[in-house]
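Is zinc ion placement plausible here? Inputs below.
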Amino acid sequence: MISFNLDLDGQGGPLTTPNRSSPDPAAEVPDAGDLRLRYYPDPVLAQRCRPLGAPGPAAQACIQRMFELMYEHQGIGLAAPQVGWNARVFVANVDPDEPTTDAERVFIDPQVDPIADLREVAEEGCLSLPGIRLDVERTRSVRVRALGFDGEPFELETDDLLARCIQHENDHIDGILITARVSTLQRIAIRSDLRELKSQWDKQEGRT
Ligand code: ZN
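Reply from A.M.:
I modeled the complex. Tokens:
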């Protein structure tokens, strides 16, 4: 299962948008023990998330918890809103056989830009949309500027699966799910699956 996200509003680095007319308030940091996987249609999945800045120990604990939950659910990427945290953060490891290596990546307050105009369609799943797979068109290669786990800025150019994963996760922190990235036909085809997910969510939240 692939849980994969575009933030095009910045001009400079990930946090260097000093002239924004209405800066987002900074993200709050929850208790890492409270994080759990959130499923469609949880409203947290539809929110544009807030910037975090360099993470302190509490935020780092949340990020570590995100990796745990990602591996537990066999994902290759996970965004903070997917665990109920409104923050511009996501993690990825597109080489899940190597869970503790350099393959683990943390993106905080990312700015993602396409490198070239080449686009590809591939099937994606999402940990917040269990059982649903959709053909999604994405840019083949991207450049990302973000802060890492240690709060240090970095820049990464990548393509293929990691680029797709980054675009999917970056969508999450803008409140966008893959269901918004596909054709009307595909959306019609999954209507009953979405209804089922909604009824499960209603039950879980004690709304029925
Ligand atoms: Zn996802």
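Short version: The longest helix spans residues 57-72.
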